[in-house]
Amino acid sequence: MCANSAERRPxxxxxxxxxxxxxxxxxxxxxxxxxxxxxxARGGSTLGPSLLFGDVPALAALTGRAPxxxxxxxxxxxxxxxxxxxxxxxxxxxxxxxxxLSEFARGRWARLVNLCVDVLAAVPSILMGxxxxxxxxxxxxxxxxxxxxxLLLAIACMALLVLPYSIRTTEAALQGLxxxxxLIGPSLGLTPKQNLCRVxxxxxxxxxxxxxxxxxxxxxxxxxxxxxxGVVASSGLPAGLTSRFEAIPFRIFYLASEHxxxxxxxxxxxxxxxxxxxxxxxxxxAHLLHGGLRRRIL
Amino acid sequence: xxxxxxxxxxxxxxxxxxxxxxxxxxxxxxxxxxxxxxxRWRPYASPGEFGIAPMxxxxxxxxxxxxxxxxxxxxxxxxxxxxxxxxxxxxxxMASVHxxxxxxxxxxxxxxxxxxxxxxxxxxxxxFSLLGAGLTLAxxxxxxxTLTLHSRIEATGLExxxxxxxxxxxxxxxxxxxxxxxxxxxxxxxxxxxFCRAAGDxxxxxxxxxxAPQFPSSYLDSVRTLTAHIxxxxxxxxxxxxxxxxAAAGLLLFVFNTALTAALRxxxxxxxxxxRELR
Lengths: 298, 279
What we know:
The complex is a heterodimer of chains A (298) and B (279). By secondary structure, chain A is mainly alpha-helical. Chain A has a single domain, classed as MetI-like fold, CATH 1.10.3720. Chain A has 13 helices and no strands. In chain A, α8 (179-187) runs antiparallel to α9 (192-203). The two termini of chain A are 41 Å apart. With 279 residues, chain B is mainly α. Chain B has a single domain, classed as MetI-like (MetI-like fold, Orthogonal Bundle). In chain B, strands 1-2 form a two-stranded antiparallel sheet. In chain B, a hairpin with a 6-residue loop joins β1 and β2. The relative contact order of chain B is 0.15. The chains are: A mainly alpha (298), B mainly alpha (279).
């Protein structure tokens, strides 16, 4: 196929590239499909009320009157509490900062904020966990001798982790607006603030919302942060901001290495399918809202 | 209001940096920092050693393996999407890559533990090892590298592609001789970004790499990364040597990632999409 003569070597490289491109372009969807169908085949059979609640009646489990020991409900409730708390902190700050960076920031301060967002986005998530953990050790030493890792701490650290996603997606949604739309308000005499509130934000709201959904997905899946800030294998429903909690990613991680019976491994597969379904739903929702501007590529 | 929020962001980053430096500061004061950096991890020896050198080596080896496995596949995928494949197939491939960004990290680890590790063990190639973790991490960083390179290549104007087509160049030639070289340092920054993400990942390393604090002598050996070290070491006191060890690991990761981020900004900032459309 490829001759050895010098002038034909370039064609050889291009052919190799083409062959390799076909291999990776077709191989990736096939491998991905195989991995996902493996998960569904192993975990799909466990789906049902008993996956969530074990053998406790659903209503009693939902209201917390009966503890659930062999179901996912406490972990799901823990993840929900974590995500809601994280969003309450991260979304207002993130969206406001995104608006600021896109619409108002000029000069040196803008460069500094931009640099800070980039640095924050590059911080490995385990360092946010280390931050929370170290904070507790420090508090124990100084002000509160009996401080411990808890839901509130995990929420604060998780908020710091997902903040850059919220900022960048908001910024991208606003920056994606066409230039004529940006100019028409001021040309009719709107002040920059009026233009922002009446024109720019309403027209980019889908993008901003899509960013918020991606932020939620990130907060639901991260494990490294909560590993060091209060997740445990069995705590029941989260009792409050100062108590420890369970989470779906941790349940999968824990059961993958510590399962003692086949039933526990089945539970891990069930949890994996639930988490997969949850994130696929969020991903699809963000995609619908977003039109696909900027994803999690950091 | 929004200015206040941006102030919070800056304060947050300053807080993270200050905290990491503060927790490692006693090490600098006592001159132990380099001892920890170059030492081994033997906490139960009679003068205990709390060094992180094996973890540094493990992190670099694992991240480099993952990046070197993922980068060629990323080039293949981007070439596939830019002209080599018919449109529907190209869209399918890129949609798969996009979808991979949404898959939780813990699922990469979980699938690897239940499929790849038994497979490697049956093939007599280790199991929980540098190889297994490297393959898994390669899948994790593949979307990062692919999408970064893809956006850089997309920034090349339509005229260039039309010129190439008018000259009768085939898609593979166009990609290899024109688009890839014209993306400038695109490949380099995509690869560096992938390395950054591989080095910063905790969960895959923790689940698949085996976590033995040793210098690996082959690809079938177990390794422990800096991130896994931070997650594994139990410390109960601010001034304990265990906490100092993980504080040093944390500071090292932070400095490394920040430096690489700064370098990537030098290599050319990603243009916001609307600038591209206006030109």
